[in-house]
Each structure stands twice: as C-alpha cells, then as structure tokens.
Amino acid sequence: MTPGPTPGPLPGPTPGLRIRGLVKSFGGRRVLDEVDLVVERGEVVSLLGPNGAGKTTLVSVVAGLLRPDAGSVSVLGTDVVRAPRAARGRIGLAAQDVAVYPTHTVEENLRFFGALAGLRRGELRTSVDTLLETLDLTPLRRRRARELSGGQQRRLHVGCALVHRPRLILLDEPTAGADPQTRRGLLRQVRALADDGGTVLYTTHYLQEVEELDARVVVLGDGRVREDAGVDQLIARYTRSELVLRFSGEAPELPWPGARVAGDTVFLPTDRPGVDLVKAVELTGQDRERLRAVELSRAGLEAAYLELLGAGRDE
Amino acid sequence: MNRALTVARHDLVWLRRDPAPVITMLLTPALLMFFIKPLYVGALDRLGYRGVNGAELAVPGMTVMFSFFMAGLVTESVFREHGLNTWARLRVSPLRDTELMTGKVAPCLVLVMAQSCVLFLLGRVVMDLRVRGSLLALLAVMAALSACVVAFSFLLCAVARTRRQAFAYERVTTLVWVILGGTLVPTELMADWVGSLAGFTPVYWASHGYREVILDGEGVAGVLPHVGVLCGFTVLFVALAVWRFNGGADKQHWD
Ligand SMILES: Nc1ncnc2c1ncn2[C@@H]1O[C@H](COP(=O)(O)OP(=O)(O)O)[C@@H](O)[C@H]1O
Ligand SMILES: [Mg+2]
C-alpha cells in the first residue's frame, strides 16, 4: 500500500479523545503517571511502547472499563470518568485478547454486537455485509468462530468492534499474529475509518505498519508520554539517512564526517540528501569512473524507535 | 428491553448447539424419580396417606431439587462471558446491567418451567402420578419456584468470583436446602430440630406447596402461603444480588 496524501485532522469543536493528567496505579505501582494525550477526529494515533508500558491500561481506561486514580478523559466531548456510560455505544473496542463467541457463526457474532448497539434490520444487514466484505470474511460468514484460524478470529474480533460504526475506535494490537494480507486489510480499514471522521487509537508492535499508516506516533514509557510526533519527525529526530555509493572494486576512503566503508560500498550520513548528493559525487574525484550506483538509504521508524527507547534508558 | 431479548436469544443459540447439559437436567431426575418411587410408599403410609404409589413424593421432590441445579445454566453463561473476554465487550456496548442480567436469566426461567412440566408429565404418563388438587395451583407453585431459582442464580453470579466458586455455592446450598427442606425425606419423619429449620429454605415451601396440591387436593387458595413465601425469597435474593452485583468486577471463568 502506498501511503497517499494524509488528510489532516478535522478539528471539530471537541477532539475525539482528550486525556489530561491520567494516573492509574496497580498495587501502589504507577502504571500511568500523568499522561496527556489529544487525538483529533479523523486522526490515527499509534500508541507504541514496550511490553508493560501501560498501553492496554490506557485503552481500558478510555473504554470505561477501568477507573483512573486521577485525571480526566473526555470521549467526543463526554467526560467518561464522571459518567462512564455516557459514551457507550460510540466507542468500538477491540481489546488485546480476542473476544468472540466460539459457538456462534461469524455472522451471528457480528449481528449480536450490532443489535446490542441498536442497529436494526436493513441497517444491521448492510453494516454486517460491508464489514464481512472489507475484512475478507464473506466466504466464512456461516462458519462458527471456533473453526476459524487465529488470524481469521482476530479479523472477526476487530469486526465486532466496528459493526456499530463507532466514532472512537480503540484497537489494542489488532494485527498481532495476523498474516501480511490480513494486516494489510486491517490497516486499510483503520485508514478508512479515520478518513470517515473516526478517531482511532491503535497500539501495535509492528513499526512498519505505523509507517504505512503514516500515523501520529505516541510512545509510552515508564508511565509517561515519551514522544508524540509524526513518523517523519521521529525518523529525523532519532536517525540520520545515508547516501550509499557503490563502486566497481574497492571503495575509496572519502573525507566525510561519519563515513563508513564496507567492501565496494561507502555509507555517508546526511541530513540534506539533495545537496549532499552532489557534494559526495564531486568528492569521489577520479574514482568517479568506477562509481556504479548512488542510492539514498532512508532510516526507518524502527531504527528511530529503538534509538528513542535507548535514549530513555540512558537517562 | 429489546437488548435483553437479544442477549436471551443469543444464549439460547448457545444452549441449543450444546444441549447436553440441559438434557442431563431432564434425564437424571427422571431416572432418580423412577428408582426412588417405591421407597416413598412406606413414608407416605407413615404420614397417613392411603391409595398412593410413591410418585406423589418422588416426582415433585426430584423436580424441586433439579430446578435449583438449573441455576448453573445462568452462572455458566455469565462466567463464560468472562472467560471469553466478551464481558468487556458487553460493558462497552450500550447494554445496561439490568438488561444484561434480564437477558441472562430469562432463558433459565423458561427452561426451569419447561423442565418441571416435562418431569410432571413424565410422572403422570410413566409413573401414574395422580394430582388430587387443581392443576392451576400446581402451575402457580411451579412458576413461583422457577422465579426463585432464577433469583438464586442471579445472586450466585453476584457473589461468586470464579465459575468454580459459583458451582460450589450452588451445589452446597441446594443440597443443604433439599435435606433441611424435606424434599428427600419429609420433614415429619426427621428429627424435630430439622423441622424447625425447614421453613427457612425455599425448597420447603416448594415441596409442601406441591404436597398440598398433589396429596391434600388443595386449590390455588391452599397454596397461596407457599407461593407468597417463594415470592418473598425471590425478592430477597434479587435484593441481595443487586446489592452485591458489580459489573465492573474482575471475574474469572478459570482460575
Ligand atoms: N489488573 C491488573 N492488576 C495489576 N497489575 C496490572 C493489571 N493490569 C495491568 N497491570 C500491570 O500494569 C502494567 C502495564 O500493563 P499493560 O497496560 O497491559 O501494558 P502494555 O499493554 O503496554 O503491555 C504491567 O506491568 C502490568 O503487569
Ligand atoms: Mg497490552
């Protein structure tokens, strides 16, 4: 999937999700320590963080399943700490653990949660059919959930969270254990929901997904928001791109800060690839005859993320 | 209440796809009734009833006992939701606690009534059970007992933290009630102290209500006290359950 131009968030009168000073402790240990986070309508935020960072706890508080010790959480303008039920029905939660009825068919699972949210007849049928189609479950609609593979179950699990067309969508590791095709379908769905004005908070450990979604990235660590930036900003902040020069035969040594040579290839760190490209080629001098290829190696989010976590640890 | 109906229908599909537990709840009491029936001839004789065959105590006795065992259907369906992680889903949906619990207990109410009807019919056809009083009075006791069972199952869901706890509470309570309440052995034939405790169990009022109709030929007026006390127990159980119920509690199916 090529990331198309990202439609910017549609700033409404109130954001889809606003969290202020959120604190949650388990047995005296602060899992969330003054977390602040705003997600606009139409925006996808990827919530990252190592295991135990508090991502699931955060999602559970937003869904009204856990009461925070302090702080405020407002969902589509409704304070869900004071009135945990007020936003019910407008939230779609696909929790970390799969939650479907193994004894019921794919269609029955979807219809059940749609009906609970108040969808009736034609409306329910349309929503279920659309979802079956987008999640690639149409051929399995009469299959019992028990008989589905892990990835198929997870798709159904996500479907159950979306069938009532919620406005705030919380997806806790929706792609865990899914095959590449499933993952792609789910990501497309996530993007479509946001383009439709939905607010999406989405946790994952697959950084490539986050790049594909071109989502805003929020990194949790030690109970706090450690980073909150776009993918490009994170990459720029924590990594450097490299110019890669390949030669026929042994690569020459070039007077460039941070240059590395490996066999027939030279790696030159750069912040301004366009300008530096010309400079680098000039520097090769008479070795230019042997220059086979020049490439730009763009550092990925993964490198940035690992660097970021490492930086946190050194503090 | 539309949503309660949705929940009830959803659970009925589950029960239909694995009917073994429900069938067991019919077969076991039917078998027990059959084998225990001859034992009651002597007991009935000592109580002063003539022209009886034992079914007069065996049929209602087993029916009452297994009605309470049906409470397991509700606790299972609730704790299963915790085990499947679907409880959290239900809590994020617009479903209210009252709708959820109504939807959970409603199928059980119908099933307990159906179970009683089937067992009495079986008693009539196979064991020559003769009811001397009014059928309407019999149905009144049946309905009150079913309501009581359902309220009891709701209470179990509210106080137990795991499925195994719910099961243990259900069996212990039911068996103690069945013994003290004179369902297995008529209270008149047990020690005096048992008789004085019997009235504190719902099982006693159900068993004696049935006795009034089957053996003493009573009509609806004759069982009003029994129906009334059973309704009282129902209200008490529901009140306790509502007081203790916490939908947000972290419950386990397996622990
Ligand atoms: N119900 C709970 N009781 C006690 N500790 C909990 C509970 N839920 C989560 N925790 C703890 O809180 C921390 C954060 O957990 P979690 O939010 O699941 O992290 P993540 O989803 O980021 O991996 C973990 O150390 C976990 O052990
Ligand atoms: Mg988690």
From TrEMBL, chain A:
One of its GO terms (molecular function) is ATP hydrolysis activity. Pfam families: ABC_tran. The keyword Oxidoreductase does not apply. One of its GO terms (biological process) is response to antibiotic. Its main location: membrane. InterPro entries: AAA+_ATPase, ABC_transporter-like_ATP-bd, ABC_transporter_ATP-binding, P-loop_NTPase. Residues 17-247 form the ABC transporter domain. Keywords: Antibiotic resistance, ATP-binding, Nucleotide-binding, Transport. The keyword Disulfide bond does not apply. One of its GO terms (cellular component) is plasma membrane. It comes from the Bacteria. Gene3D superfamilies: P-loop containing nucleotide triphosphate hydrolases (3.40.50.300). It is found in: Cell membrane. It is a peripheral membrane protein. PANTHER family: ABC TRANSPORTER ATP-BINDING PROTEIN, ABC TRANSPORTER ATP-BINDING PROTEIN NATA. Belongs to the ABC transporter superfamily. This is ABC transporter domain-containing protein.
TrEMBL record, chain B:
The chain crosses the membrane at residues 20-37, 57-79, 100-123, 135-160, 172-191, 223-243. One of its GO terms (molecular function) is ABC-type transporter activity. Keywords: Antibiotic resistance, Cell membrane, Membrane, Transmembrane, Transmembrane helix, Transport. It holds the Pfam family ABC2_membrane. One of its GO terms (cellular component) is ATP-binding cassette (ABC) transporter complex. Its main location: membrane. One of its GO terms (biological process) is response to antibiotic. Residues 20-248 form the ABC transmembrane type-2 domain. It is a multi-pass membrane protein. Belongs to the ABC-2 integral membrane protein family. This is Transport permease protein. The lineage of its organism: Bacteria, Bacillati, Actinomycetota, Actinomycetes, Kitasatosporales.
